[in-house]
Amino acid sequence: MKSFGFLSFGHYGRGSGPYDPDGRRALHEAIEIAQGADALGVNGAYFRVHHFARQAASPMPLLAAIAATTSHIEVGTGVIDMRYENPGYLAEEAGALDLIADNRIALGISRGSPEPALRGWEAFGYTGSADPRGADLARKKFDRFLSAIRGERIADADPAQFGPGQKLRIEPHSPGLADRIWWGSGTAATAEWAAAQGVNLMSSTLLTEANGESFADIQTRQIDAYRAAWRKAGHTRAPRISVSRSIFPVLSKEDLWFAAPMGDQATDQIGMIDGYVSTFGKTYAGDPDTLIAELKADTAVQAADTLMLTIPSQLGPEINLRLLENFATHVAPALGWVPNAEGPATGYPLD
Question: Helices (DSSP H) in 156-204: which residue ranges?
């Protein structure tokens, strides 16, 4: 690990109390957390995307607000559900956003996780998937999105304006954005597919595998498979690899109070999601020395260049920024952290 960011699920409620923000307050607090994290040297601010839920959804307005009011922090998603997206329009938005942000956008994209709505993407007007989970639709649209942001000319030009046989690319085009696209993977097979596409790996907060190994060991095998496939594909740049963890440094009684409810998640969990037996990673909570030792022993954290801390965003900016500051001050330096003012995050070179 050499960079870390926060990953917010963007939960909100009906505004009934201090830890039940409504949608407006949740969005404003997300901006405030990102601004504070930027000042702390945190490398990234990433947001989950869900639909038909009281949770962060269409991410571009939020990312634009953060990008316009911060200086160094990488701004992105983890992940956009491609089943719900128009690939050309998403490419236009992403290009414009990256230019506004001076090349600080990093978009995690995937098929998406189970949603409250049954085949909800069809309510958005996207039909024709033969897969009950919409994976075929997501990958087809992801291919078109990649072509667009890579600057490929994908539309026939009007011959009356441009002459015969001309083609047009999506505008605005942001050079380099394609190198900051991630695919969210829950298995070694999807990680290998992401490597073949030449995109970065965002290893999921859960893995649709359960074989008796620890979450970290399963995830490390996924990362190894991705790197092997990246080499095989012959890509020349160093890819980015991220993993997510719930981590609560405890430096005070108040920190312990917020970390205590996580005690029942102190070990990996096995459960069902989307019809698959899946492994969910444990929560890390303890004093800095304990956390440093445990995270150094987490082989996936060590293998990844970027660590995303899942945060309890509904608890507000003060608590979340203290969590991030505690990690930045007392834990991250021992793991190899490079603060955001020292330049953009990069991947580890492959041997």
Answer: 159-162, 188-197
